[in-house]
Amino acid sequence: MWWNKVLKKFFKFSKERLLDKLDNLSVRKKLLLVYILCVLIPTIVSHFIFTIFIVKNLQQQKINQIKSAFNILNTNVKRVIDEAILYSNTLYTDDLLNDMLDIDYHGMDDFYSNYVQYLRNRIYQGRNVYSNIARVTIYTNNSTILNSDGYRKLNIQEVKEWYDKVINNPQGIVVIPTSDSGVNGEEGYVSLLRNLNQYEQRSTSTGNNSKYTKIAKIDIYLSSFFNSINFEVFGGEIYLLDSSNRIIAAHTYNNLIFTKPFVKFETSKFVPKGSYVFVNNLDITLLSGWKLVGVFSRSYMMGEIYRAIEFILLISLLSLIFATFLIRVITTSLSNRLELLERHIRKVKKQRFEILTCREGNDEIGSLIREFNNMTVRLKELIEKEMLSEIQKKTLEVEKKQAEINALQSQINPHFLFNTLDSIRMRSVLKNELETAEIIKYLTRTLRRLIYWGNDITTVQEEINFVEDFLKIQQYRFGEKLTYEIFVEEDAKNCLIPKMTIQPLVENACIHGIEEKEDSGRVTVRVKKEGVKLMIEVSDNGIGMDKKKLEELYANLNNPLYDKSIGLKNVYRRLMLYYNDNAEFYIESSFQKGTKVIIKLPLELPVFVHKI
Fold first, then answer.
1. With contact defined as beta carbons under 8 Å apart, do 467 and 501 qualify?
2. Among 48-52, 153-157, 448-452, whose mean pLDDT is lowest?
3. Is there a contact between 601 and 533 (Cβ–Cβ < 8 Å)?
4. What does the alpha-carbon distance between residue 115 and residue 40 come to, in Å, rounded to a whole number?
5. Which of these, 88, 115, 551, 600, could form a disulfide with 194 (CB 3.0-4.6 Å)?
């Protein structure tokens, strides 16, 4: 489709434009842009969404907590009312009780004997069995019934507030708040009133229906409605309202309050500004229109939410501070080193070879800085030492040519000499003079190495082989007077060194150290690696040198006119030509105790040496 091609071109063009703009930004600005787009904005947005989620969750949790408390209260009220109904059913169906209330008693004694025998216990039974029942009173218009504990004569004027409600109620049972005086200091009650005459199927013992009106009034503790709630945790105010919206009881600030006379609940009086109001209608038939009203302060409803928001804001702030600090450190680490590197590259362009001194690090930039420094050093060395290197190269070439000329001058037809030596060795073998034949073999190999010089560079192993042949010849010469030991580390055998570095030192030890010693002598050769250096040690227990002679030798190592210790001088001079100041040369000697020569060479040969 044509529009698909247009979109592809548009996206390609936009991508190229974006990349062009990004390429023109400095590294510091790019890192700042990454921080804003990938850290700052996502952190703020995620914490904002998380805050909204937490706030809604806490609000719903608080509402669920309040609903749960209301459900508990509703269940508790129903349980208490059901207990009172259950007890009223006991009174309602008690034939004997109704019969006794229908009897016309003859005086006080007659009534008292029946009261003690049955009537009193019937009333006490309800109060003892049901803890939520405060008192039970049965009203009757039987004039022979005396006012006593649990029984009263029915005076319609005294009970007019509830009499008509009970008599006219089809079910004969109602629940009303009562304003009677309290029992045991309690003042808050709800009264369940039951018309005991509605049980028409019941027959008296005389066969007649009830001839007197009998109404049971069961007073219930209002406080028992609120027993199941821990108001220290609940944190709100609960009002119990009847169908007329009157406050029957209120639980505020951990105190249960009863109002008499009853006061109507008005929002302007009982609901502070900013408070939250929750209404729960009681699901009880006898308490139709009754409800529980909860009033909760804003601090109670929003306290945990505010604390959660403060905590989230604190975490967000700390996260941003930490992220900002970390990005700042990383940005500084990258940009500062890149800027330094850029400045030094410009200096190199102007032929100012300065080493970049800063905290390099082990990342890619650190590797780049180290490579730059290595490059700078190498360039500086190449430029500064180009002429010196050429001179050294030419000098070594001259030395080499001179050595070859000397070797040629010392030759008397080498092939004739080697053939002659081989003939002598074969005759010695035929005559069973094996020792002589072996020494001639070592001598032949030594002469071949000296005559056919070849390359100036050899391995430690090849040089040691040469030294060992020389020592065997010297051992043949000196006999039991000379012993030797050679120790070479395995990883040092393939290291490259100039030819004739060790052999002249061994020769010097044999001739000037052991030969002039009266008793037996020992020559020891050690070669090993020490870090980035190759250590060569040649020692003997010969006659040695005193301090004065040693100082004289040190002072004349570079003196071409000094005709003593030529072997040592030649080795020292050649090593200095190869390695400049990177070669270390030490001589330790004590008179009659021996001499030790220590040489330390770089493991890596100079570049120009490979061109010889």
1. no
2. 448-452
3. yes
4. 87
5. 88
